[in-house]
Design a protein that fits this description.
The protein contains 8 helices and 16 strands. With about 300 residues, it is α+β, with helices and mostly antiparallel strands. It has one domain: Carbonic Anhydrase II (Roll). Strands 2, 3, 4, 5, 6, 7, 10, 11, 12, 13, 14, 15 and 16 form a 13-stranded mixed beta sheet that branches. The chain has a 3-stranded mixed beta sheet with strand order 1-8-9, with no helix packed on it. The chain is globular and about 75 Å long. The termini are far apart.
Length: about 300
């Protein structure tokens, strides 16, 4: 009886040890995720909130973000939150919007495993986007799987966020949606680096960095015939608002293998790293269409010709 009792105690001690070990591991992963995300959006608000945990499910999931820390309250009470579901009946054509002007240049880049997403940081001189006559410099890009924004009720396989920042600290994000299909050329040139990042993860290096070297981003700036524009927020805590969002209208393709490569370095808790859609709260989602703009220009040109 004594032996049986001793074995029972040992069993419970062994079980509790492993359970506590797993809990500590998960807490460390979530903590690493927060620190990594704080680096994504370098703002004073983030500096004050380092060390607070957030995730994509359970007690630290999106529905709880606003209650995890006082600096995260915008996640719960903000009226300009992102992402959103872009519904056709809620969009407005704005003839004053101009063609998206982006100038990107080859520059040194680093691929980073942020535990909760894969990101690429650029060195100086990566290029700019001009929105409302204001220059925003490309800082980094990262991916979400599946997409955070929905288009006419459809959620896609992946979403790329190209994060730009102006001199005054404000953000502009240009987002591309991806469906499963042919290989995406930009990711294709990084395949070996993504595999390397995945290997580092299996070695236990959860926040690995892989030097990419000089990478050409120019083809990403391809001509955009349609885009959606609205004012939103960061899609991760602290969910800061007044972010200028541009969602490209053309849904691009990415192979299933590429989606899995983007997920492979991440912990299982973050392989689905998309925040649910937020209420529009009466915001205007404006649409740019190149063809409509061209028609207006042609009409104006004809009038000028007739008058002369």
């Amino acid at each position: 009886g004594f032996k049986r009792g001793a074995n029972k105690i040992l069993y419970h001690l062994h079980r509790d040890f492993h359970q506590n070990r797993m809990k500590k591991k998960m807490m460390m992963i979530i903590k690493l995720c927060f620190f990594a995300m704080a680096l994504l959006y370098i703002t004073p608000a983030n500096a004050q909130t380092q060390g607070v945990l957030f995730g994509y499910r359970g007690k630290n999931g999106p529905n709880q973000w606003g209650h995890l820390n006082p600096h995260f309250t915008q996640c719960a009470v903000g009226k300009l939150q992102s992402p959103i579901d872009i519904q056709r009946r809620q969009t407005f054509y704005n003839r004053r919007l101009e063609s998206l002007h982006r100038d990107y240049y080859p520059t040194n880049a680093t691929l980073v495993n942020h535990v909760c997403n894969v990101a690429m940081f650029f060195g100086e001189g990566a290029g700019d986007v001009v929105i409302d006559n204001k220059n925003y410099t490309l800082q980094q890009m990262h991916w979400h799987t599946p997409s955070e924004h929905h288009l006419h009720g459809v959620q896609y396989a992946a979403e790329l966020h190209m994060v730009h920042q102006a001199k005054d600290g404000s953000f502009a994000v240009v987002a591309s949606l991806f469906k499963i299909g042919t290989e995406e050329p930009f990711l294709a040139q990084m395949k070996e680096k993504l595999v390397e990042l995945k290997k580092e993860r299996f070695k236990g290096n959860q926040t690995a960095q892989v030097e990419v070297g000089k990478i050409n981003t120019r083809h990403i700036e391809g001509k955009t015939r349609k885009y959606f524009r609205y004012v939103g927020s960061l899609t991760t805590p602290p969910c800061s608002e007044n972010v200028s969002w541009t969602i490209l209208g053309k849904v691009r393709s990415m192979s299933k293998e590429q989606v899995e490569l983007l997920r492979s370095p991440l912990d299982i808790s973050y392989k689905n790293n998309s925040r649910p859609c937020q209420p529009l709260n009466g915001r205007r989602v404006e649409v740019f269409r190149e063809l409509a703009t061209d028609k207006n220009r042609n009409r104006q040109q004809k009038k000028k010709t007739q008058l002369s």
